[in-house]
Structure formats: C-alpha cells, structure tokens
Amino acid sequence: MKKKLLIALLAIIATLTCAIIFAACDIFGGNIGNGNDNETNGSNANDNTGNNTDDSSGDKTGDNTGDNNATTTPIHTHEWSLAYTEDSGRHYQTCSSCNEKKYSAHNYSNLVCEDCGKNFPVVVGTSSLKYSLNTDEKSYYVSGIETNTAKNITISSLYEGLPVTSIGEQAFYNCALLTSITIPESITHIGYQAFYNCSSLTSLTIPNSVTSIGEEAFIYCTSFKSITLPDSITSIGDSAFSDCRSLSKITIGNGVTSIGYHMFYWCNSLKSITIPDSVTSIDYQAFYCCSSLTSITFKGTKVQWNAITKGSSWNFNTGTYTIHCTNGNIAKS
Ligand SMILES: [Zn+2]
Ligand SMILES: [Zn+2]
C-alpha cells in the first residue's frame, strides 16, 4: 500500500517538473541557457589574410562521386584572369573557361588597390569613437564608444592614416541609445559581442568586405527587423543573432557553410530565412523557439537539404514551416 502511494507521488512530481520546464521555455524564454557558453575568441586582431574565395567547387578533375552535386563540377583547372574586377568591398578574378569568380580582399597601398585600382573609400566617422592599433600595427579596430551618446554612428574607414579593419569585441556593448550604425567597406571582421544588447538598433547594413562575424555579435538586438548578410561572409560565430526578437526576415549569403549553435535562438518573430546551398550543418538549437517560422528558402535541392547535418533540437518549438528547395518543397517533419 505504502509503496503504491510512493510511486504515485513520484509520478506527480515528475509531471510537475516537466510542466515547469515547458512553462519556463515560454515565459522566460531566451534568458535560460544563454550567455554562459562562450570562450572569449579574442578576435580583435585582424587576421584576415584576404584569401577568401567563393569557389567551393575548386579544381576537381572529374572525380565527382555524385552524392549531392546538383551543380556542375568543372572538369578543368580554372584559369584565373590576371585582371581584377572591383566589387565594392572586394574584388575578383574570372575563370576564362567557366566564368567562375574568385573573390579576395583589396590590396591597398597608399590608398589605392594595387590589383584593381580602386581608391580606398575614405569615410570620416562620428567623432569620439575610440580606435586601437591592431597587432599587425598596420590597421586599427574600433575599440569602444567612450562617452559617445549619438544615436546614429558612422565608423571611420581610416584612422591616423591606417585602415580601420574590424569592430572590436564589445565595442558597442549595451549601447541602448544606438539606433543606426554605418559600417565602412574597410571592415572585414565584426567581433565578439560587438553589438551586445543594442536594443534600439533598427538599421544595419553589412558591407561585402566583411568576412566574419564573432560569437554573440548581435545578441539581444531586439529592434532590427530584417538583415541581409553579404556573400563575402564565410563564418558566423555561435549565438550571433540569438534573442533578436523583432527579426522577421534574414538572408544568409552564399559563403556560409554552417549555421552555428543558438544562431537564431529565441528569434520568435522570425518568419522567413534564406539559406544558401553551401550550408552543410545546422547546429544544436540553432532555431530554438523560432515559433513564427513559416518559410525556409534553401538554395539547393531536396537531397542536399536532407544531407545537412542537423544538431539536436535545432528546430525545437518552431512554426509550421515549409522548406522551399530548388526542386520542390519539403514540409516540416
Ligand atoms: Zn573555370
Ligand atoms: Zn581591389
């Protein structure tokens, strides 16, 4: 008799615990499980050597195993043009056989790109931002906002005669007044927690010179509604857009290969996202509690979508979305 009572009691306790966990997910949402998971990535230094290429298909000589290669793999060695063509924040060479483009960073010397001839885009920014010298001693990064309370901020592209190449970690941390930021084409990296909790930030354009975004770079930016990430970006740190609760639309550029841990965690207004076919993994809880999600546009085939490695709970508590692939739709399963 006593034993039965004990079992019943245990069952009640277990049920209650489950209920509390689920309620917490709805009520407290983004504040559980966040913010404890980053090793500082120390990304102030501008370590971009400018060899970012978009030609993932490479120089294969016909050894195509055919798993999900819907796109054609060239059976030739690319022959890159000697001439470089300017494309705002970067430049490219073209293959004379297949017209594929190979992108790289401008190679400025005395404010002119030695390869394509582009003049360095001189932007005079908002006064009293703080700039610090990178370890290469050839460039600067934005290191802080000091006493600046301007709502609209423009970052300088040149400081003390040297290019400003990155936005340092926590540079605009907790800038609750900041509503818009203008990022010049000299910037190649946005650092760890650079815009942490910039809760009034509504306008953001990332130039196509940027190749990497650090962890939690835009976490808790609760006001911006849509964002387009340029094709130049090849890496985005974990939780970069976590808890961006007004974000309803995002387009990820063609250079990204993985959608990291908590990338869009608790973006509960997110309705549509465009994912390039270069993506091969979606990590743990990447879209956790994106409860408004209705449309995923995937720029590859259904076979390619199914081949993406997906971490556990990657789509926990998401909306009833459809995945639009190039050769048909897939319903949420
Ligand atoms: Zn080629
Ligand atoms: Zn150039």
Give the topology, please.
Blueprint: H1 2-27, E1 85-87, E2 90-94, E3 101-105, E4 108-109, E5 112-113, E6 130-133, E7 140-144, E8 152-154, E9 158-159, E10 162-167, E11 180-182, E12 189-190, E13 203-205, E14 212-213, E15 226-228, E16 235-236, E17 249-251, E18 258-259, E19 272-275, E20 281-282, E21 295-298, H2 302-307, E22 309-310, E23 322-325, E24 328-331
Parallel strand pairs: 7-10, 8-11, 10-12, 11-13, 12-14, 14-16, 15-17, 17-19, 18-20, 19-21, 20-22, 21-23
Antiparallel strand pairs: 1-2, 2-3, 4-5, 6-7, 9-10, 23-24
Written description of the protein model:
The protein is mostly beta strands and 333 residues long. 10% of the residues lie in helices and 23% in strands. The strands form 6 sheets. Strands 6, 7, 9, 10, 12, 14 and 16 form a 7-stranded mixed beta sheet that branches. The chain is flat and about 55 Å long. About 17% of the residues have low confidence. The site of one zinc ion has 8 residues, from loops.
Distance between the termini: 44 Å
Rg on CA atoms, Å: 23 Å
N-to-C series of helices and strands: HEEEEEEEEEEEEEEEEEEEEEHEEE
Task: Tell me the number of helical segments per DSSP (H or I, 4 or more residues long).
Answer: 2
How many beta-strand runs?
Answer: 24
Q: Label the structural class.
A: mainly beta
Stretches where pLDDT falls below 50 for ≥5 residues?
16-70
- Tell me the β content: 15-25%
Average pLDDT number: 84
- List cofactors, ions and other ligands: zinc ion
Fraction of residues in helix: under 10%
Q: Tell me the overall shape.
A: flat
Largest sheet: 7 strands, mixed
